[in-house]
Write a structure and sequence with these properties.
Blueprint: E1 6-12, H1 22-28, H2 30-49, E2 54-59, E3 75-78, H3 85-96, E4 102-106, H4 115-124, E5 130-134, E6 140-145, H5 163-173, E7 178-180, H6 190-196
Parallel strand pairs: 1-2, 1-4, 2-3, 5-7
Antiparallel strand pairs: 4-6, 5-6
């Protein structure tokens, strides 16, 4: 596995109090939710740095030139296009797969993400056209592919328990196969933090 062939796309929200982890904030308060998000960002960065790949960070609102995602370890982009998450993810894959053979996208919510999981994802793309890491909440913490596939991102009801299953169904409808990674935890609700916070 060489960095030249692999692109790791990292979708992050700009860490602004009151605008991140809003579901957590409803229970734990804005300050606690903000601090948890900062911990998740630091964890995601540490995991990303341990993997051989070109690392592309995509910001939700603006490109922060003075934060932990420093060049040359990370290239910085703004999430492009429609407010819809799917359209922004599709645009990121289109950009990455113009220059790299394999692209894997992650967010910054997966507290159990590890370098081994990312390495498994890139390795799987040697044999499978798609790789997906399902989350316990029914979404996914990782999606990888070798060619842009717009149909995986349109008309998806994001942040619902059917996202991973619907994505796998659409890949199957293309006549393609998916390597499915272990199911891991995302941190979205206070219950998630209570159950999995010790992983940080």
């Amino acid at each position: 596995m060489t960095e030249a062939n692999n692109a790791l796309l990292i979708f992050v929200r700009n860490p602004q109090k009151g605008r991140v982890k809003t579901r957590l904030a409803r229970t734990l308060g804005e300050e606690a939710a903000y601090n948890i998000y900062l911990q998740l960002l630091a964890h995601t960065r540490q995991v990303a740095l341990a993997v051989e790949a070109k690392r592309l960070v995509f910001y939700s609102h603006f490109i922060d030139t003075n934060d932990q995602w420093t060049f040359p370890d990370f290239e910085k982009y703004l999430q492009a296009g429609d407010p819809d998450l799917g359209a922004r993810m599709e645009a990121a894959f289109q950009l990455a797969l113009t220059h790299y053979d394999k692209a894997v996208i992650i967010g910054s919510d997966c507290i159990q993400l590890s370098p081994a999981i990312l390495e498994s994802a890139f390795k799987a793309l040697d044999s499978f056209p798609y790789v997906l890491g399902p989350a316990f909440d029914g979404g996914y913490y990782l999606l990888g592919m070798r060619k842009p596939t717009p149909s995986l991102f349109s008309d998806i009801t994001w942040s619902t328990p059917t996202v991973a299953a619907e994505t796998l169904r659409r890949i199957d409808a293309l006549g393609a196969s998916t390597f499915v990674l272990p199911t891991l935890a995302d941190i979205d609700e206070a219950e998630d933090w209570e159950k999995y916070g010790h992983f940080l």
